[in-house]
Amino acid sequence: MSSTETLEVNFDGLIGPSHNYGGMSDGNLASQTNAGDVSNPREAALQGLEKMRMLVQAGFVQGVLPPLERPNLGFLVDAGFQGSDVAIIEAAAKSAPQLLKAAYSASSMWTANAATISPSADTNDGRLHLTAANLSSMLHRSIEHPETTASLAAIFDDEDHFGVHSALPMHADFSDEGAANHVRLSAQHGTPGVELFVFGREAGENVAGFPARQTRVASQSVIRSHQLAESRAVLARQSETAINAGAFHNDVVSVGTLDTLFFHELAFADTEATLSDLRVAANDLFELRPVMVPDAEVPLTDAIKSYLFNSQLLQWPGEDRLVLLAPLETQETDTTRAYCERLVERNGPIGRVHYVDVRQSMRNGGGPACLRLRVAMTAAERTSCHQGVLLDEAKIDALQDVVRATYRDRLSAADLADPAFVNECLTARERLLRELDLEKLI
Ligand code: SUG
Fold it and tell me: What is the span of the domain harbouring residue 139?
């Protein structure tokens, strides 16, 4: 942390005590397949924290974003339920279990969807900009943004350095899923870069098949409010084939960092145009290194099942090539394991693949990359953000102790009807917030 250079800080979502398999995301195959299964919130949170620990041990600056308050009783009140907390939960469980599941969703763990980030090196006013994603496509996620904005405002609480923007208008024309459809490429984390915005549909367009969760208008709006130079912002359309095969976010089929873009052949509607636009935008900044995975080597279905691309692509301290931090499922899928072996053997930009266990999250369609929000920060920005969310091993130990003491190790849909679970969730979150010196979010 004493480094004077700009570093990429990963803010992982701390998985909340109500993590469950609600089957709430149409177009997300894992969420649909595992709907109704019993989850293990304790194991989920410990797995996430172990991933954070590994990066702390490797020498990365690692941050965390706290879980949102769940159940979201205000949402149930807006939906017409009245009375005491117990009365609200009992009535919702009886007459609207889908709404109760939405109110309990722990989906804020996937912080790649919390916001879109533009580092200060890219913005006209020299501040780091963050726009909370409205997540308007899925009901259970559409209720995240007010609290997400509050968390970001509490953590990036210095207007000289940070511009925190609340979510775009809540309309289908502005559907925005945050950094999951955004890739920043640059020579170094601290030098000006090119920002790639990937959208799935135009405003007003009706696309058949699975939902396209990002619109061009939403991406253009973020480009404007972040004050990005038009010449350094590239818009590209996701391929419908990828969306309909289950790539509900672009980060299910592509990941990039520094000068490297690692992607599946069928990720973009027009790969050649996307690469050419990126090269023009990168012009004098850096030379783009595309690593395209052919469908003949890794069929799209395997890429999506294994989450090969939903990996963290990291400049690992002490290593000269990038490291791909992939989910264990990538190792367990024959084509992707074999591909990774070939990938590191050749002299390309990716020199190592490391596998990590985030199975609890994976079963809802969230891999290592979904669980983190990348924020390239200068040394001054790192010192002016809220220090309580920057982790060392002692803080990870303390958070794990709270998780062990307060989280259940099995949770089914029926358990959400238990009114006693409300206080259990609130107490767990309060204790976590205290560990992070974020009492103001209680
Ligand atoms: O939005 N799953 C999340 C997964 C988000 C993954 N994020 C990225 N690819 N960046 C989603 O579909 C499932 C919840 C449930 O069914 O209970 C869910 O919301």
Answer: 7-70+105-441
